Structure formats: structure tokens, C-alpha cells
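User: Predict the structure for this protein chain, please.
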Amino acid sequence: MIELADARIVPPQQIDGRILQTAVFDRTGKDVAQAATWRREERITLPPENLPQAAGELAGKWLWGGVLYHHFGHFQMQSLARLWALNRFEKGALEGVLFVTRGQPELLGFEAEYLRLLGVDLPVKVLTQVCDVAHLVVPGQGFGLGEIARGTRVFRRFIANNFAQEIEPEGPEKLFISRALQPLDKGGFVGEELLDARMEEAGYCVFWPEQHSLSVQIARYKAAKRVVALDGSALHLFAMVARPEQKAAMILRRARVASRALRWHMTSFMKAKPLAINALAEDADTVVGKKREISELDFELIGRLLKRHGYIERSQDWGSLSAAELALISADHGA
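Assistant: Here is the predicted structure, written as C-alpha cells:
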């Protein structure tokens, strides 16, 4: 963690895919590398070639939060990564937290709730213009995509000691986190309701997280002794509150490498390795939006592994997709 006097923050000047032209500069006009956001081994926030003039000023001491991502998964993995440093300051020592963003310049509802559950009671300001800051605290990136998905020790301690402490476990012991209600531009499967039905028949409560507040989601995740889900952002939230005695199985909906950061996150934070079920056909392709057909998943393999590892009873009737189920997929695809 470093502290800068007279820092200049430049919000995104240009966006090229995941690369943002945004940076923090010190009083000499030098790019502050520690303020950059890294994704795997790639720096994805780069300084503009020329230092622009400031359009505003902020007095007092502020904490640098980095880039505010409005995607639920990226918000958790990248926008929270520096907040561990809040525990290093006495109440009243900081004016607030500063972010830049590639999207709308204010907190979304779930982001405000997430920060409240983290105990962040400071103002959060999203800069849209080049701004000089009298005193800027720049913590190191304690979390993110790549190897750092395991989290630094100080970041893991911050989450364990601060996040959702007041929420009590409430809900069923067996929870299946469904993605069936996700829109077409979100990865998943056409006919995913068939997997929901199979898990319900196996004794699981099917849970659609987007229908509930973060507090309700966390209560369910804390209560469950067994959690099964397709890989996705909901499991990042589960990992934040999970315990070693819980068992979690992840059915891969993408190539295995795409879920690597999520698996590292879960293993490191819950101190237990999730069961990763790779039942997706190698040549599976999308058929509508970002969705594949559910028939691209080997249901027989999913059932066999869930039984072997104690997630469902061995007596449970679970085989390959039936002709009737396949007919339902065709109807869904036609719709």
C-alpha cells in the first residue's frame, strides 16, 4: 500500500475490449503501476500517452478502489480487490472510496448492498472527469482473475472478518443454484429447466438467485450442506461465505480453463476443493445467443459423479436424457 500526495486520476479515455485507457499519476506525472488492474498476467488498465489536464479537485484523503465493473462476477473479483485496506484506517481518516468505470457512473443496487454487507460505510465516488486528489491511498490488488483468484492473505482475512457477519443461515440443506432464468446473452443452455427438474427430483431445492436479495442468497448459501451449480458468478458469492464442512459441486458449462479462477477462488476461501464435473461435449457450440443445447451435457456422467461423491442417493433414478426430455428441448429451441 502506498500513499500519494497530489495524485491525478484519469477515468477511461478509450475502451478496447477488456483494455481500458485509465490510470493514476503521481505529482511528477508518472504512471502509478500499483494502481493498475491486472487480469491473469495482463495489465488491462493502461495510461494514456499524454497526461490530460484536471477538470476537478478533491480535498482530503481517499482510498483508490480501481475500476467499478457492473457485471456481478467481475464486480466481486475485481472491484472489491483493494477494499481490504479500509481496515487499516480509523473511522474518519478517509473521505471515501474512489472508482472509475466503463459503464454508468454510479453504484447499482446490488453493488451498494454488497458494500453495505462488507461494512463499507464511507461515501463511494465514481469519477467521470480527470481529477486531482490531495491525498490518495493506493492498496495493492488483493484479488482478481488468474493466480490471484486465490486472494492474498490480507484480502481473505478482510472478507472472513467483515462480509455478511449479521446474516444467519436459513434455508434447505441441499441447494441447486440454477441459471435457467438467465437471458440469451448469458452463457448457459437451452432446456436448462431439465437439469433443474432432475435436481429437484433428487431432493434439492432449486434456487434462482436473481429473484432474491443478496442477503437472502447469502442466508441460503450459509445454510446449505451440499451445493450444486453450473459454473458462474453465483458461486463466487457462495465462496465468500462458504465453510470447509460444506460440499460444493460445479457442473462446467464452458471449457474447463474458463472456470479455473472460480475453482481457485472456491478452494482457497472455503478451504475445500469443489467437485468439478466436466460433462460438456468437446465440440459443443451455441445455438441461440450464448446458449448451447442442454443435450450437449452428458447427463449420465453428471448423475454418476454426483452419486459417487455423495451428492445424490445411489438409488436415485438418473440416466441419460430421455426421448421425452429431448422432445422438450426441441420445443424450447423452436420457441
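The radius of gyration is 22 Å.
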